[in-house]
Specification:
Length: 577
């Protein structure tokens, strides 16, 4: 028998007054509540539902809401209510049925006494609310969605929170000095939550611009001191934007923003759109900044021409040394970069030495924020280091202790594909991915398959936008350009013939004839730069290291080159010391 109860009432002064006389715990007990109108919803926690409802009834931002659901439980305390509030906000944001009105500064993830026992109750509360129509999907279905993974309603870890707070406090000071232009950088390995920090910053800036003074600010929030009247006026007039160079990720984030009232009209932009905007921006956040491009032949000929025209318009000349980062800094007073130069995968991406100078500049200004904590991969930093060194000339001698993380080498591609299907049925979000080591023959509807190995015939991804969620993705193979920036539960990684071991030297080499990303191996003739064998090897290694860090729960591996496969097998067969 459940100990919790869910009380229903109308969001009116009369209903609140009637409930106060009927329920003693309505005035003096920790509770979690939901206020909604069938389309928008607000979730809160309080020690006095009576007082809090009367405060909300005075809010112009909530006057359209109609119904209240209050969750009572005799075991509730303040910590449990904060935890349940955060959970419901995150799940509602990821489910998508309602548009969540909450600010994101109060989302917490603090441990407390008997939390695991409360979590069992929270799941029961969720199921009860789902039966009453508040959720359309189960918790696993929600957690696998882009709406959840890219939601601004995330509990930041300590280093993420410190970075956000430092950036925001600095921004408050800088906005009082209109002549100041700044650059900040957040640097981290795959899975450290750079994209989440960028989305969080966008939402926090919007919350500061729109917050209702009648709303209580969560006192334990590290951002609570930002919510003062003066800052509201400061941020209200800001022109802000989020730049996402990759088309697929940009579309996914735009779709999430449309479901968040505070971000519905937020600008998710290409570098070209920043450069072409009618007005300069006050703040630009750049996600995946390592995928910004330099001068050279772009993905399409029209963009190559447009690149030169844009540079000429902004700087008065078509200086070949000017890149998209220069455009953004020209059009934005305050620029915040989220980057990992080890994820640069094409010669047209801005070269690492440019970002080395950026890191030196931000470090000198105390505006560089390293992220170190692994948020994606269940194997943690041990797996991340293992994946990095596995494909190197100094590979690990054995597999480290990866706890519950699955890592397995397959000799048969069909068997690996079947394992991915099984994991997808169990957990969802399990896909095959590969390096660009096969021609994309199926793109031209030739009837030919792209990847044929071990009697298995597979095609590259049909969709280049939101491929992971497409109906055919489980039977296709995703490339780096469709999965970079995304999470999977399990990834089946195919290392093709573009990466092999030289039988004479025993060193890893790039095999250019088996690498079919034409833009990934092209020379930059416009700038007189040749993509050397060493450059190509670096790009290909970066591609595979990104692919090897997509799986949150496990990674399966198939290797085409016999010598490399033998090396990996020997490592996996060696027990840790």
């Amino acid at each position: 028998m459940t100990a919790f109860e869910i009380e229903e009432l109308r969001f009116t002064p009369e209903s609140v007054e009637e409930t106060r006389g009927r329920l003693p715990r309505f005035s003096n007990w920790p509770v979690v509540y939901l206020i909604e109108d069938g389309r928008e919803i607000y979730v809160g926690e309080t020690g006095s539902a009576d007082r809090r409802m009367r405060q909300h009834l005075k809010s112009r931002q909530k006057e359209h809401l109609k119904e209240v659901r209050i969750v009572f439980d005799e075991r509730f305390n303040g910590s449990a209510c904060l935890d349940l509030e955060s959970l419901l906000i995150r799940l509602l944001g990821g489910d998508g049925k309602y548009e969540v009105l909450n600010r994101n500064e109060g989302i917490t993830n603090q441990d407390y006494f008997q939390r695991s026992e409360y979590n069992d109750t929270f799941k029961e509360i969720f199921e009860e609310l789902r039966s009453r129509g508040y959720f359309e999907r189960t918790i696993p279905e929600i957690e696998n969605s882009d709406l959840f993974k890219l939601s601004p309603y995330k509990a930041l870890n300590t280093e993420q929170g410190v970075a956000v707070l430092d950036i925001m406090e600095g921004l408050v000071q800088d906005l009082h000095r209109p002549e100041v232009r700044t650059l900040a950088a957040i640097q981290g390995d795959p899975g450290t939550g750079k994209t989440i920090v960028g989305i969080y910053l966008m939402k926090l800036m919007r919350d500061l611009a729109d917050f209702d003074p009648t709303d209580e600010v969560e006192g334990d929030s590290m951002f609570s001191d930002l919510f003062v009247e003066g800052n509201r006026e400061l941020f209200r007039s800001l022109r802000i934007g989020l730049v996402v160079p990759q088309k697929s990720l940009r579309k996914s984030i735009s779709r999430v923003f449309r479901k968040v009232p505070a971000l519905r009209d937020a600008q998710v932009l290409t570098p070209y759109e920043v450069a072409d905007a009618d007005e300069d921006f006050d703040v630009i956040v750049v996600d995946e900044a390592h995928r910004l491009t330099q001068r050279g032949a772009q993905a399409f000929g029209t963009l190559t021409k447009r690149y030169g025209e844009t540079t000429r318009r902004l700087f008065g000349e078509d200086d070949l040394a000017i890149n998209q980062l220069d455009w953004i800094r020209k059009r934005s007073k305050h620029t915040i970069l989220l980057l990992d130069t080890a994820q640069s995968v094409r010669p047209i991406d801005i070269e690492p030495e440019v970002f080395d100078r950026v890191l030196d500049e931000t470090r000198a200004q105390k505006r560089l924020y390293p992220l170190d904590t692994q948020m994606r991969v269940k194997g943690g930093k041990a797996y991340l280091e293992f994946a990095r060194t596995l494909l190197s000339d100094t590979p690990p001698r054995a597999v480290p202790d990866l706890e519950d993380y699955e890592f397995e080498l397959f000799d048969d591609l069909g068997a690996m594909h079947q394992r991915i299907r099984e994991r997808d049925k169990e957990r969802g979000l399990s896909r095959l991915v590969a390096g660009y080591a096969w021609k994309w023959r199926s793109k031209k509807k030739t009837g030919l398959h792209d990847i044929e190995l071990d009697g298995v015939a597979l095609d590259w991804n049909v969709s280049d936008v939101d491929w992971i969620a497409s109906k055919t993705s489980l039977e296709e193979v995703g490339s780096i350009h469709t999965v970079q920036g995304y999470d999977l539960n399990y990834a089946g990684v195919i290392i093709g013939g573009d990466l092999r071991i030289d039988p004479v030297t025993g060193l890893l080499v790039a095999d250019k004839k088996n690498y079919f990303d034409t833009k990934g191996k092209a020379n930059n003739s416009m700038r007189g730069r040749t993509t050397s064998d060493e450059d190509l090897l670096r790009y290909i290694l970066n591609v595979y290291r990104v692919l090897l860090t997509r799986g949150m729960r496990g990674t399966y591996l198939y290797v085409v080159d016999p010598l490399l496969r033998r090396r990996v097998a020997s490592i996996l067969d060696t027990k840790p010391a």
